[in-house]
Amino acid sequence: MAYFDNNSTTKPLAEVLVAMQNASAKNWANPSSPHRSGCHVRALIERAREEIAQTLNVEPKQLTFTSGATESNNAVLSYIAKSQDGGCGNILLSSIEHPSILETAQFHFSEKIRTVRINSDGVVQIEELIELMDQEVPGLVALMAVHNETGVVQPWQEVAQVCRDRGVWFHCDATQWIGKLDPAGLNSCSSFSFSAHKFGGPKGVGVLVSNEPVSWVKGGGQESETRGGTENFPGIEGMRVAWMHHCSTGYSFDLAESWRDAFEERMNHQFTHLKIIGGKAKRLWNTSLLCLPEFNNLEWVSRLDRLGHVVSNGSACSTARDQPSTLSGAIGLNASESRRLVRISASQATTEEDWQSLG
After folding, report:
1. Which of 36, 42, 72, 337 is the most buried (most CB within 10 A)?
2. Do residues 206 and 225 lie in contact, with contact meaning Cβ atoms separated by under 8 Å?
C-alpha cells in the first residue's frame, strides 16, 4: 500500500511505539504524586520539555504540552479574548485558517474579525495585511505557516516581523511546518502550535509555545498552572522520540520534491484541463492538490484505495463534516471544482516508486 495522506496523519515510527509501550508499562505513576515513582515520571516529562524546547530555541517554561494544535489554537484565542476583557478592537486572520482558528475566533470575537484575502495560488497577501493593520491595530494576528490542503507556504516570517514592530500578538499554526521544514525562526512568533501525529508521533498530544503563560484549563496545578489535568506521559514520550528522530535526519528534501514534480508532470500529460492548486507558489515538498477534470473526488479516493493507494479529498477536519473547506471559495473554485479536489501528501518514507505507481 502506498500511503499518501500524511498531511492528515502519519504512521507512528517504530521507536515511538516502543517508547510509548515502555512508558505505559514502567512509568505509569501519576506525575503529580509526591512519591518516588511519581517524581520520576515528572522528571521524564521535564526532560521531554527541555529537549524539545532546546531544538526550538525557546525556554522550557514557554512550552506547554496539549492534546494537539486544535486545543492549542483554541487556548490562544480564548486567552486573548479573556485577557483583553472585551477591549480588543479586532483580530486579523487569513481567510484560509484551520477551523480551530476560524470557528474559535467566531465564538469569541464574532463581528470583531477581519480577514486577509489570498491570491489565486493560495498565498496570503501581506501588503493587504499590513494595510489592514495600519488602518486599525489588531489585538491578535493569526496565520498558519503552511496550508494543510495545498502545501503552500505562507509568509509567516514577514508577518511575525510586522507584528513585532507594532507590538501585536502573532500566533502561528505550525502544524504542517513542524516535521517537514526547518523550525528555525518559529521562536519569533508570540506563540505557535503543532501536533505530534504529523511527524511520526502519537495522536492526542501536541505543543503550545508561547512568550507568556496562556492559562485555559482549570482544576489542577499541572503545566505550571496553565493546563489542569494529569499529563499524558506515554504520549509526551512518544512525541519526544519522534521529534528527536526528525531533528537528527535534517531537512533536505530536494529529491523528494523532484519526485512530486515529476508526478505532477505525468498528470498534466494524462489529463486535459487539470489544475494543480498552488502549483506556481512555494509549497511543501510533499504535497500536491489536484483539481481533476472529471468524477467526484470521493470516487477517486475509493478507486485508488482499491488499487492500494491512499489519498484524500482534502482536509480531514472538513471531510469529517462532509463540507468544503474555506480554501475553495477563497481561491475562486466553483462548487463542481470543489468536489473534484484530491490531495496527495507524502512522508519521508515515501519512495520514488510510490510516486510512480500512483501516476
Report:
1. 72
2. no
For residue 349, what is its C-alpha cell? 518514507
pLDDT at 132: 95
The dihedral over CA atoms of 280, 285, 289, 292, expressed in degrees to the nearest 10, equals: 80
The grid coordinates listed for 355 are 510516486
- pLDDT tens readout for residues 176-199: 999 999 999 999 999 999 999 999
Alpha carbons 36 and 234: distance in angstroms, whole number: 18
Say if residues 168 and 138 touch (Cβ distance below 8 Å).
yes
Average pLDDT (321-339) is: 79
CA distance 227 to 214: 9
The DSSP 8-state label assigned to residue 284 in this structure reads -
Torsion of CA 156, 162, 167, 171, to 10 degrees: -10
Please report, for residues 66, 142, 208, 224, the alpha-carbon distance to residue 227 in angstroms, rounded to integers and kept in the order given: 8, 22, 11, 8
138: its cell numbers: 489588531
CB atoms within 10 A of CB 200: 26
4, 358 in Cβ contact below 8 A? yes
List helix spans (H) across the chain. Answer: 14-26, 36-56, 69-83, 99-109, 126-135, 156-166, 222-225, 233-249, 254-270, 297-306, 316-319, 327-330, 335-338, 352-358
For residues 185 and 156, give the distance between their C-alpha atoms in angstroms, rounded to a whole number. 10
Report the candidate in 236, 96, 247, 118 with the shortest Cα–Cα distance to residue 182: 247
Confidence check: pLDDT of 75 > 70? yes
Beta bridge partners of 331: none
Please report the pLDDT score of residue 294 as a whole number.
Answer: 85
Place of cell 473554485: 333
The model's pLDDT over 211-260, given as tens digits with 9 standing for 90+, comes to 999 998 988 889 988 998 999 999 999 999 999 999 998 888 999 999 99
* Cell numbers at 352, concatenated: 520514488
